[in-house]
Every structure is written in C-alpha cells, then in structure tokens.
Amino acid sequence: MTLFLISIVAFFMLRLMPGDPAQVLAGQDASQELVAEIRTRLGLDQPVAVQYLKYLESLATGDLGYSIRSRQPVLEEVAARLPATLALGYSAILIALALGLLLGVWAAVRVGRWPDILVLMAALLGVSAPTFWIGLLLILLFSVHLGWLPVAATGRWDSFILPIATLVPLSLAIFSRLARSTMLDVLSEDYIRTAVAKGVKERVVLWRHALRNALIPVVTIAGLEFARLLGGVIAVETIFAWPGAGKALVDAIVSRDFPMIQGLILAFALVFALTNLLVDILNGIIDPRVRKA
Amino acid sequence: MPGLRTELPLTGKIGLGVLLALLLAATFGPYFTPDAYDQNLARSLEGPSAAHWLGTDQIGRDLLARILVGARYSLLIGIGATFFGVVIGVSIGAVSGYFGGIFEAAAMRFMDLLMVFPGILIALMVIAVAGDGLGNVIFAVGLRAVPVFARLAQTSTHSIRAREYIVAARAAGASGIRILWSHVLPALLNSLVVLAALQVATSILIGATLSFLGVGLSPEMPEWGAMLNSGRRYIFQHWPLVVFPGLAIMITVLGINLLGDGLRSAADRRRDRGVALA
Q: How far is B91 from chain A (nearest CA, A)?
C-alpha cells in the first residue's frame, strides 16, 4: 500500500516539474528529434491515466528507464549502488541499537547519579550536532592529524570505520534516551519487584526480565530511526566519496537526472518498507503478545 | 505563557539565554566585524588574529563575520520552515480531525506516507522539482514538518470535538471555522509551542545538510552548511573552516533543544498540578 502511494508520488513528481517532461528526460541540450522520440516512446502524448498504467506496467517488469547522465538502465545503476549504502546503514543501526540499549540500561540503573547524567548529556549533544559535521571532525582527527584511517572509500575494512562512527551518534542518542526511560518504567513494575523479592539475582532480573520488556519500544522506533539514519547516509557518502545510492541521489539531483532520481527514491522506499516489515517480525519474536494479536 | 520564568528549569533558561545571545549576535554582530563578503586573496586561510578573530577563509573573507551573517540564514530557514509546517499542518490536522470521515482518513494516510521518508530525502525531492533558492529551501524543509503538526492537531481535535463545550458552541450556532479558531486551537497551544521549538532545531539541521550537499543555496553564500561544504576542500590546510561553522550549528541547535525540553517539562508540571492548559 505504501509502495503503491510512493509510486504515485514518484510518477507525479516528474509531471509537476515546470516545462516538458520529455525535454527534462532528454536533458537540456537534446535535439528536437530526440525530445519528440522520447515523447512518443514514453507515451507522453497520451492521457495521464494511460500513462500511469503504463508506468506501473514498466515498474512491474523492472524497467525504470535510462539514466540521462550515464545512459545506463536505472535499475542496473541502482542495483550496483544500493549494497554499499545498506552495508553502511545496517551496520550503523545495529551498533547504535546494541550500544544504546547498554547505555540506556546503565543510566537507568544509576538514575540521578553521574553515569545517568553523563549519558543524558552525551545524548543531548548527539541530537544537536549535524551528522556531516561529526564526519568532518572525525576526518580531521583520525585522517588529517593522526593519519590512522583513510578519508575515502577504498573497499578495505578500515574505510568503514569513520563513516559508521559518523552515523552512530545520532541514533545512539535516540536509542539510549528511549531505553533509559522505558527501563525506568519497567523497573518500577510489580513483576520486577516480585522477581527481586523471590531472590532472583540482580543481573538476571535486569538482563532477562526487564530488558526484554524495555526492548519493545526501542525496536519499534528502530524502523523509523533507520529511515532517518539512511537520510544521514546521504551526507556521509558525499563526505567519504562512498560509492552508494545516497551519493548517487545527490549527484542525480544536482544534474537533474530525473529517471535516476525516481529510481533511487523508489529503491529507498522499498528499503524502508522491508525494514519496517523486519521490525514487525522482530517485535513478534521479542513480545509473544504481538504474535497473538 | 505567564509564570514561565519561575517554571522553566535551569537547562531551559540556559537554552533561552543561548538563543537570545544568538539573536543579538545575528542582528548586531555584523556591524562590528569586517564585511562578510569582502575578499582579500593576499590574506586567505589566515589563522585567528586581532583583525580576524576566527581567521579568514579560502578567499580571505572574515570567518567570524560570515558565521554571524550565517546565523540569520539558519534562523530564517529554521523558523520559516517551522512556521510553514505549523500553518499548513495544523490546518490540515484540525480541519480533518474536526470534520472526520473519508477526508480525515485520506489526509492522515498521506501524512503517514510523508512521515515514513527521512526529512532530508523529502527536502531533496522538493528541491529537485522546485529548483534552487532560499524560498524553495524553506518550503522544502517545511514540508517535512507538516505531517508532524498535522498529526498533533488531528489527534487533539478528534478527541475534543465531542466535549460538551464544543457541542454547546455548535448548538449556539458557531461555524466550524469559528469553533476551530476560538475553541480548538487554544487547547492545542501548549503542545504546539513545545513541538514547534523542537522542529526549529530539526529544520536548521536539515537546512544546513541541504546546503552542505550543495543543493538549494549557492555554495558561495555565508550559510553554515554551505561554508562547511566549501571549507571541507581545505581540511588538510586550514582546520578552522570545518570546525567553527559546525560549532555554530551545534550551539544553536543545542540551545533550541534545551529550551524545547524545558518548555515541555514546564508544561508537564503545570498539567500535573491540574492548572488549565495555556
């Protein structure tokens, strides 16, 4: 359903543009013959409803048109770039999730004392610093001054460190704050007091009884947070010359390569939809109540 | 909001102070520094000195002056985009929440769709279609805030439309628009102010990210994101260019976040005491 709506948005995006879509698709300096050929080939001389059905048909067969810049099929271009983006995005969100839970629990157990205050202050800085600036500072420190890590993608493992370290702080801040507040709620529940009263070790209460319940809201927003993190990937790929879909999108927008923009937006939407599905399944595993509902 | 001075927590007051200082600096600061657009190639990439407190950029312009002028752009984008989001979002949310039915369902479904996309992606799409320029940037960043406010307005409107005083107003012959304006909107005000403050922070971040990517505003403009974009080519020679504009963004956003969190806890405390909202 969401994908269907997004296909409509992507379709009308091109038609909302000022000027002739055929001219836009052909590029600014294309010949009149090429523009006319594109117009008939894409059926732009037909009614909008017919155009949309044709567009859906070509989507279903995986035909996303051709990039204006590279003259390659958009589907191939997107498929070549998406894995690099996903590798970055998924590693960053998993690290942020694990660290965020750990810090959140740590802060909740010591609420009001220095670990708690430290985590809250770090989280506030985390949501206030622009992601791309964190990337620049990391380059300044680890590449320019210390010379430990590469400034751009080389394909080797060590070129992953700085981009991931750039992406983690914002999500980490969100996850640790949420984990802290839900953990505080959970720890005051009756079943936790019961577990403590009957002599279950503190460590077991914390990590088995409490964490499992605190996990649910955190995992639930992980889907939305992942979408935001992928937004950050766009800037991070530009900084680190990362050969992914985010950098391709910025390039496509700067050069007004509309078939490519459409294809990339659809690809991002597909990734968000699949990730949200994954989150729903994960929640079912963590919380048996979800499965029955 | 009366009594704010006593109810705002210390962190909120710090945030307010940072913001006021920033407003003063953005308004009057540029009169005390060298001109932000004055080039001097002979003095490019200089370190901090008495003449140039934060040094100069790649074509010898005063970095502090550019940061101060940049504050105007950032605040304009942040506040302008949020204002756009509040006006359009609250209108959509309040009208659909009040009248309900199929319009409400359709409008909210569309808002959910917008919400799924990260803000920067929406802004990039809008700029791709609408083209560059400050007005388009404000619109692009503001569009992302629309569903946030629409959601808030719709939920509260939906929940209060069946209350006695609304029914009474309707029975007395007040029109739908009048009821929304004089009965529904005031009830929203508190949560609206808190949400708007936090959205200004997010909008500033997204606006800066856009111009950092070289989209929307010219890279020559003294906007913080654009300054970081052109400065990052000199990261090996001259670190101040990639540090100070970012620091300015962070301090601004931090100040607004502190104020927003403070307003929220002040509003919560007042509600807990049972004092009428707003």
A: 22
